[in-house]
């Protein structure tokens, strides 16, 4: 897919096999990132006049990038459903329960997860999220009317739900408030640019691009006054307390990805690298002592570039060049 078509489409997961278990369902679903360009067409950048509320039915497997009101009505038992929500990098996801008619005692549930889960891997990783894992799940059947609105910490969230009875339904209103200091982001497109800033906070932030891409680091400011080296996975950067790492892998969890390069000195770029993995991550680690900033651009690698990288690479995790 090329040009504007690729920019207009983001993704929904098309490959979803039977989701397993009751309590373990959340962690072991077989959703994969494959076929991610396929379903979400004009809805991604849909412009709705402010006085109107966009609305449509919610599907058992769904992907939503628009604000609006979404209603699921069971036409049969649906035991393993998931809806993925994504916003712009500088937004978060707010999910409000407008009306809910499900049988919690009969095993139905609606659970909002603060992030995404695919094949048991989570974004953001547990290392990069402020909340413990179990606090990232909010179960309507546990909280009920006491918590009618759930807001994510980053630009992605998802809703798991299970409904047994025909005619059971629920309606969600999704909004996308502005996040002044975005941290942990999944890019909607395989090409773009971003500037990540951590304002004297002890936290880790990851920018995930679910494509093989070339990354160009244009600027890096870590509160140090040193010259710039780029080091292939050297342990010294981790000891600095403030650094940026480039990661590559084929899953969602940055903590399980391969470290391609460490950057731990100030510089004005460009420094660039091609990473032929299904997922590329720019991750900033901040000690909280400085205002840290990294600016970068990224673009999708074409087939010829991927083939050249594969032939020339000596690495065994994906392909780098």
UniProtKB/TrEMBL annotation:
SUPFAM superfamilies the UniProt entry points to: Spermadhesin, CUB domain
Gene Ontology molecular function: corticotropin-releasing hormone binding
Domain Corticotropin-releasing factor binding protein C-terminal: 185-307
Gene Ontology cellular component list: extracellular space
Pfam family, one: CRF-BP_C
Function: Binds CRF and inactivates it. May prevent inappropriate pituitary-adrenal stimulation in pregnancy.
Descriptive protein name: Corticotropin-releasing factor-binding protein
